[in-house]
Design brief:
The protein is mainly α and about 170 residues long. About 60% of the residues lie in helices and about 10% in strands. A two-stranded antiparallel ribbon has the order 1-2. Strands 3-4 form a two-stranded antiparallel sheet. A hairpin with a 5-residue loop joins strand 1 and strand 2.
């Protein structure tokens, strides 16, 4: 963080301070906001909670996988469309991460709902993107291994003649 010196000159942060500035954000990417008059904190799922949600969100992850098969990350509009295609599962996941009721979530305005969805994606989206990238990398590694495997050549056919037999 920049600091004000005694003579009112702003001093830039040291490189060490700037380098570690996002450490807490990476470790605990919680997002807080007031949505529809309610203070909400959207948190990243813990390990067990994330594993429990995985089957619910797998169809969404499969579609995200299909979108990410190219080298570029899909745009926010594509991701939002895919989230909408899986709104029942996504709503449950958002409600759990924000510790809100599904009924409250369903009653949000378009702006408030998108705000909450973007908070959820900011806290949990990187995990899902990483999961899909890992799946793609694993699939590609397996493909390379399979492409490099050659079947064992068959034995040469048995000789029907001996080399001396044709000379007679």
């Amino acid at each position: 963080m920049a600091r004000m010196k005694k003579d009112r000159v702003i001093q830039a942060p040291s490189p060490d301070a700037a380098a570690g500035q996002d450490d807490l954000e990476v470790l605990h990417p919680n997002r807080s906001a007031t949505i529809a008059g309610r203070s909400v904190t959207v948190r990243e799922y813990g390990f067990i909670e994330g594993m429990r949600l995985r089957p619910l969100l797998q169809p969404f992850l499969d579609d995200l996988h299909t979108m990410m098969l190219g080298d570029a990350l899909p745009g926010l509009d594509q991701i939002t469309m895919t989230l909408g295609a899986h709104i029942d599962a996504v709503s449950e996941a958002v409600a759990i991460a924000a510790d809100v009721e599904l009924e409250w979530l369903a009653g949000l305005s378009q702006d408030d709902g998108m705000h909450l969805l973007m908070l959820w994606w900011g806290a949990n989206g990187p995990f899902y993107v990483r999961s899909v990238r890992n799946r793609i990398a694993t699939d590609r590694a397996v493909e390379k291994l399979r492409a490099g495997q050659m079947s064992t050549p068959s034995s040469s056919p048995p000789a029907t003649e001996t080399p001396n037999a044709s000379a007679s």
